[in-house]
Amino acid sequence: KQEVTQIPAALSVPEGENLVLNCSFTDSAIYNLQWFRQDPGKGLTSLLLIQSSQREQTSGRLNASLDKSSGRSTLYIAASQPGDSATYLCAVEMDSSYKLIFGSGTRLLVRP
Amino acid sequence: GAVVSQHPSRVICKSGTSVKIECRSLDFQATTMFWYRQFPKKSLMLMATSNEGSKATYEQGVEKDKFLINHASLTLSTLTVTSAHPEDSSFYICSAQDRVHLGHGYTFGSGTRLTVV
């Protein structure tokens, strides 16, 4: 059974700092991995999707990497801003099933 | 871009009553929608996969008679929590896919906060 773990559970950093969020999964036979952002009491916003054959994806200040063999993904946020404060969730999709298995998220606070 | 509208955003109901939550894809057709449940500071747990024109597929441990799902059209899926109890209080989120334009990209609704008193 696939299990997705995110470390740390919570992170507080000063504005401007670069930071890395970690995601690990136990079954490397994934179809893709996605990173989402969730603001309090809100739905999810898709940030980046990495196909199993890809190593990384970039969007603006965000860079996500994938090492499928070791079961790890990282989300790198450059020059963090208070507006980046949110919960970041990673999720894996297995075997093109369209069903996502989520990690428990990292709650990020960027202090002004 | 693809937009999913979920309604209501918040609902408070009495124990024993039923609550219906709607999930609509506004500018695309979604043959499949997904319903998730999220407990405070916990991850999203998939409850069921809703398929247009057919019965929903429920995940293990989810009571299908408790959580009724109807996907009557390509743009609307509903989740009805029947005979709600306080332990059903949670955050429910739907998602849909525009497979034509987004492939495996997901669009999520804004969620529904259900409180059963």
How would you describe the overall organization of this protein?
By secondary structure, chain A is an all-beta fold. Helix content of chain A is 0%, strand content 60%. Chain A has no helices and 11 strands. Chain A has strands at 4-7, 10-14, 19-25, 30-38, 44-51, 56-59, 62-67, 72-77, 86-94, 100-102, 106-111. In chain A, the strands form 2 sheets. In chain A, strands 2, 4, 5, 9, 10 and 11 form a 6-stranded mixed sheet that branches. Chain B is globular, with a radius of gyration of 13 Å. Chain B is mainly β and 117 residues long. The mean pLDDT of chain B is 89. In chain B, 35% of the residues are buried. Chain B has 1 helix and 11 strands, in the order βββββββββαββ. Chain B has one helix at 99-102, and strands spanning 4-7, 10-13, 19-25, 32-38, 44-51, 57-58, 67-73, 76-81, 90-96, 107-108, 112-116. Chain A binds chain B through residues 4, 31-32, 34, 36, 41-46, 49, 89, 91, 93, 96, 98-105, 107, and chain B through 4, 6, 32, 34, 41-46, 49, 91, 93, 95, 97, 104-111, 113.
